[in-house]
Design a protein that fits this description.
The chain is built from 5 helices and no strands. It is mostly helical.
């Protein structure tokens, strides 16, 4: 267990902004499982693209690290990019109608990744 695992998101953001690769790695460790779980659920009909929104979220975090707002949680930042990419995949999928049905159920349940927070 590294010292980074005990840091808050705000502390990790501060370190990531300073190009700290280990802080970035901790962000990946902390949020990879919930993002992948959500991706498998959301991209049910495009399993070959499940990793794409997760990778895009981390890539965006690293590219935009110097502009990060220390007041936003890592989860909120990653969730936003993840959701945009996943919706784009669903929009462009040949399974659009199936995804509309899934989203209807998810929104009815109130358990959509874009709508709720997580426990890590």
């Amino acid at each position: 267990m590294s010292i980074y695992s005990s840091l808050s998101d705000a502390d990790l953001v501060t370190l990531i902004k300073e190009d700290d690769n280990l802080a970035f790695n901790e962000a990946v460790e902390r949020y990879n499982r919930p993002l992948l779980r959500a991706s498998y659920r959301m991209l049910k009909y495009d399993k070959d693209k499940v990793e794409e929104p997760v990778c895009d979220a981390y890539q965006d975090l690293w590219i935009k690290r110097h502009q990060l707002d220390v007041n936003i949680t890592l989860w909120d930042f990653l969730r936003s990019k993840f959701t945009k990419t996943a919706i784009g995949i669903m929009r462009d999928s040949k399974h659009q109608d199936d995804y509309l049905e899934i989203w209807s159920k998810i929104l009815d349940e109130g358990s959509c990744i874009a709508c709720t927070d997580i426990s890590v």
